[in-house]
Structure formats: C-alpha cells, structure tokens
Amino acid sequence: MKRITALVLLAMLTFVTPLYAASTPKMLAYVDHNSNSFIPVGILKSYEGIKVQYISAQKKIDIVQEKTKLTLYLGSKTAYVNGKKVAIKAAPFQEAGNTYIPLQIISQHLNIKLTWNKDTSSVDIAHGDTSTTLPVFSGKSISGQGSKPIVSSRKSFKVGSRSFSTQMVTIDLLHPKVVLDVVLAGNQVGKVEDLRSIAKRNNAVVAMNGTFFDAYTSGTYKAPYGYIVGKGKLLKDSPADKRTVFTYDSNNLAQLVPGLDFKEHFTQGKSTGAVQAGPRLIVNGKVALDVKKEGFRDPKILTGGGARSALGITKDHKLILLTTGGATIPQLAEIMKQAGAYQAMNLDGGASSGLYYNGSYLTAPGRQISNAIIVKYN
Length: 378
Prior knowledge:
- By secondary structure, the chain is mainly beta.
- The chain folds into two domains: about 140 residues, Copper amine oxidase-like, N-terminal domain (Copper Amine Oxidase, Chain A, domain 1, 2-Layer Sandwich); about 230 residues, no CATH class.
- It is about 10% helix and about 40% strand.
- The chain has a seven-stranded mixed β-sheet with strand order 8-9-2-1-12-11-10.
- The relative contact order is 0.15.
C-alpha cells in the first residue's frame, strides 16, 4: 500500500515548464504528459543485489533481484515477471543518453522505497542501505529542444511603496548543456580577483559573487567566511558556522542547507559545489527570516539598505541569480518571492555585489571578490 501511495504521489507531479536530462547522462526522474513516471535503469546498478542487463539486438532489458526477474522491451507495453506476461501503462524508451523504465513495475516487484521531497522537487529511491535522490522533471520532451537554458532580464519589483530595479539571470539547471561550478579567485583561498576575470578564466557564461570575505584587511590574504566546495572538493571548511549553505549535487539538484547540517551532507557525497552566506530569505515559497538562528549579530542586518546579491531556486529546478540596489534584507526577501523563488538566500553584497553575463557586467562589483558561483554552457 505504501508503495502504491508513493507511486501515485509521484505520478501526480506537474510542473509549469518542461525540464531535461543531461547529455552527459545525469540521473533524473521523469514524469511524462500522461503522468507516467520513469527512472533511468542505470540507477538500479548501484543497488546491491540487483543486476541489470541490456541486449541491444533485442531491445531487451533484464532486471534480476534474488528470485524475481523482470523483462522489458524498448517501445513495448508488454513486460514479463518471472516469465509471466503482464501489461504495463508506459513503455521503456531511450533518450539523451539514458534508458528510462516505468517506475510502476519496479516499485511493485522490487524492494524499492520511494519518498517524495516537496522542498527540493525530488524523489528518494531507496533499496537496502542505499538511497539515491533524483530531481524530478516533467514535460513532453527530455531533450530540451527549443528552450533557452539561460535567460537574462531586467525587472522591476514593488515592495511596499518602493520599486526596485533588478538584474536577473535564470538558469535551467537540468538542461543538457548547463554546468554549475564554484571557483576561488586566483584558484587559491585568500586571493581576490575581478569577477569578470574569474568568469573569463573559467569560460563561464554567468558569474556571481559568492561568500562573505575579509575585504578590508590591509594584508594580502583576505579570508573567505563559510564553507566553499568546488568540483566535489572542500576548498574552505567552516565548522560550527550556522549560516545557510547553497549546495548542488552531480545532477544539479540544488538546495539550501542549514550550516550545522552541511558537513554531514558533504561527507555523504551529496555536494559537488557549495557556498555559505545567508541569511535565508525564502522557505517553501514564503518569506522566512531568522537571522539570530543563523548567527548574525549586527543589529542593522535587517534595517540597513545597500547593494544586494541573492540566489533563488524554483520548484521546477531553475536557479535565479539577482542583483539590486538599496534594499534591506526583508525587502530583498520580498523581491525574491515575487521573482518566483521557492527557496532563496542572500549572498555577499555591498561593493562585492556583481553579476556577469555573456561577456559583460549586468552589475559591476565595486571591488575584487574572493569566490564566485559560475555557470558554463558546454
């Protein structure tokens, strides 16, 4: 009963726009326009006790677990369970480097547990001691034909009696060619560099300033504050830091994690890249500010206005990078909510606030910075 309930929940997922799998095959769950749910068959290979074999000439997929053998065929709604013919609602298919199989038959006949994560629009697929979290996307096509994966826009948002002009870049995180990274200035902790230089040196289409750092020291070493992870490596440790961490995994599943929870998150192999800043602005689509809980001590943190950089994550796996001027933190939170963020956080601001896109600045920083979030398009 639990399996059926989880399957129904997953099949009912709908998103506003189609999302896509990656050309370097990423593991992504897929819900088609008929609410049929699929997973890449390759994920089953990571589970102990499950064997997968694909016979290309016959377009045949064999999945074996102990005494259970499932046989499926690409393009066919007929399957076999231990040799017995059964009808399935959706046929397996291949696209964008992955072979997708219907989740229904897997859930019914293998010892698989499904858990839907509303906060991150993802699904946990657990078998024994192994659990894998996949982003979930929907639409008519996985390939991303006709879509613009990176969109730049200038928008105005009204908060109370004030209007704020913003620069925004919106990135489709699950598009086949989008690659996220977090990089250090000068490839070294404590260095600083122009944001434009960081972007060009890393062949980035988009770049935004990242963590806070000691910008006012007279020394040459300007220490960054908070966790920094790039390409799966911990570049800067920050134990006991409570501030929010933006992190993403190898599937570009992005999320915001409390600082005290991040080290375990990283050691479990769930973080390919990360930056820590804060405060958190949006939680599940609602403004949620708790600066004391995150360890901020400056009494002006909520009242002082200035140049701001923020990032948001939408329900359908898009990343919003936004800059604006003269906003307080509460005003910035309202802006990010109006911009469509389901989760959002503040980044370093003031003279550090900068946004680079396609060879030029949308917002030029007033100083060199310590590290950056970059987006490549391969």
